[in-house]
Amino acid sequence: MKLQLALDLVNIPQAIELVREVEQHIDIVEIGTPVINMEGLKAVSEVKAAFPNLTVLADVKIMDAAGYEVANASAAGADIVTILAQAEDASIKGAVEEAKKQGKEILVDMIAVKDIKTRAIELDALGADYICVHTGYDLQAEGKDSFADLRTIKSVVKNSKVAIAGGIKLETLAEVIKEQPDLIVVGGGITSKDDKKAEAEKIYSMIQEGAAV
Ligand SMILES: O=C([C@H](O)CO)[C@H](O)[C@H](O)COP(=O)(O)O
Question: What start and end residues bound the annotated signal peptide (predicted)?
Fold first, then answer.
């Protein structure tokens, strides 16, 4: 089980400062969609240049022109690139193929997918490296979470790694760890804290203990 820190509401210098604080306690750093929308793929290249040994995920949430978008994110230094599960199968295939060519990985984001089980089976067969259940900010505000969806995809996925994102924090971590996903994404659960390093350390060690069970 790995921990991915999602950086969403920061600019590039703030992102670099934040990663510097917590880098010992994370496995992957996500350059979030709002950061990329504001700063472009430069945010990915600058963070990768500052932390060459850290795995960097570019949350570009691709919907079309997938091979081209994956190639651009890879060239910027992304190790993992995201595509939306609602994209056409041809786009998912294009993303997977391009990522393989570049030696990178694809994380497929299940945000807003209604039939989670069917789409997870299809994405698994299409060669997604990760399938990630995700409650976005707008549904988190309505009190929703993805714990049941995680159980659903865990029960059907055979080859892809399984991930969960959306509003996860120290207080809800035990429930997530119980399901043993391969990857846990935490954004605000760390970045909103005064002592981000201490929070990341607690979350990281809980995940490591949970993985050893
Ligand atoms: O992907 C995300 C969201 O759609 C905004 O781009 C977040 O990175 C993801 O939800 C994790 O962040 P938290 O919900 O703050 O943990």
Answer: none
